[in-house]
Amino acid sequence: MAQQDEVFKKIVSHAKEYGFVFPSSEIYDGLSAVYDYGQNGVELKNNIKRYWWDSMTLLHENIVGIDSAIFMHPTIWKASGHVDAFNDPLIDNRDSKKRYRADVLIEEEIAKMDDKIEKEVAKARKRFGESFDEALFRQTNPRVAEHIAKREALHERFSQAMNDNNLEELRQIIIDQEIACPISGTRNWTEVRQFNLMFKTEMGSTADGAMTVYLRPETAQGIFVNYLNVQKTGRMRIPFGIAQIGKAFRNEIVARQFIFRMREFEQMEMQFFVRPGEELKWFQQWKEWRLRWHKALGLGDEKYRYHDHEKLAHYANAATDIEFQMPFGFKEVEGIHSRTNFDLSQHEKFSGKNIKYFDPELNESYVPYVIETSIGVDRMFLSVLCSSYDEQKLENGETRVVLHLPAALAPVKCAVMPLVRKDGLPEKAREIVNDLKFDFATHYDEKDSIGKRYRRQDAVGTPYCITVDHQTLEDNTVTLRERDSMEQCRVEISELHRLIHDKVSLNSLLRKLS
Ligand code: GAP
Q1: Which atom of ligand 1 is the closest one to the Cα of 220?
Q2: How many angstroms does the Cα of residue 230 sit away from the middle of ligand 1?
Q3: Which residues, other chains included, contact 469 with Cβ-Cβ below 8 Å and sequence gap of 6+?
């Protein structure tokens, strides 16, 4: 784990050093859990968004996009349940004055128990080799059985307390498990209180009677309140979907792990409206489609897993997370939820407007059911960054740091470099840039040795480097160097466009999905 922590620290500093992610307001010592994206970060982020947006709106003729406002009528958040129930249970340690999420403290305790169990299993696997029967071992080894029983009992008690919203019981679990504050090391805990995660602000002048409004904690509600506008103006027929990308805000208590949990972040959400009774079929379909979208990036199929929810929100009848293996464990990147007709029915009730859909095939009106796919742009960014970061030992003893970014997502697609800064090579290189720049993010780089320039491009994940040398002036060929293999080949300048396009275009990625 310590080694993973080290790697993660390196990724965070690499992200800053190479213009991907900066702490927000850094010259004022930063603002907790808020980050800015730099010159390379914004390109990578835009490419991730483009991949998602095109996969939704181009590949599905029944999905269209919208861009709703961040400010919305405050009653929307009453109807959606966020005013009353978008809470985290928090607890303070009286000695360190640090604040924690009570549920996270308990989940970490359960994770420690899981670690213990896995360690025992790993030890036994090593001891018994080929003949090891893991299922049998888990059932029969007394120490493992004892750990499993304790873990299950704690999990059961915790789930019950969360389901019943029993804050006293959550505190009692923390006391009984002897969970100590990681800072002070003491168990001097306050009561557990509910804390609403929405940011409030005021709209209008106070003299006129200002209205309390919220920064939206999810983009989904902007889709729900517009669903009938889109359906009518777009003449959409069920099943159909509405996609949206936009900022969301949550006053997270535990804001840790870099851009994994932020107070201002971005979501890519799609609500798919279906006939009542057909939602579970569509839920399965979207579960499959979304995993395929992730895997098409080639970050490693083994890095993904589903986590089906045992405890469902009151409005959901199925929910799963797609988790990705971050350096700090498998973590949720995307949620897929069957939200029934809860949100739309609530908006119908609170607004007093009829927002039923008339189904011409059934000749009846109903409130559609909804399947939601919701993915955090920043978490997606983090998963791409973490799985692409690599430190390679080279044959000459040097180490190169390379980002094996999926080529279609790379901020810079190719860099053109004159071997030397004279003899007409820079002019020839500029000519190539001026041709390629209309189709690809192309950089021109003439500073430092060619080796250093390659390293710089590797560090930001540029898939191709094109070197212009004296031979170029004679026969119009250049050296094309591929990032991952570092292989170089001589190609005609006229071939560059085709060769690069094949590898870096979003088009080839999207084709894998259909
Ligand atoms: N509309 C449903 C919804 O918002 P969610 O599970 O709360 O569901 C969806 O959020 C996704 O948004 C998560 O899977 C995660 O990728 C991202 N997300 C949520 N909170 C976040 C935060 N504080 N920082 C970064 N990303 C976050």
Answers
A1: 1
A2: 24
A3: 418, 419, 425, 478, 479
